Amino acid sequence: MVRITLELASKIIMATLERRVELGFKPLCVVVLDPGGHLVALQREDGASMLRPQIAIAKASGALALGISSRKIAEMALERPTFVASIGPISPDGVVPAAGGVLVIDSDGQLVGAVGVTGDTSDNDEACALAGVAAAGLSALG
Question: How, if at all, do strands 111-118 and 139-141 pair?
Answer without folding.
Answer: unpaired
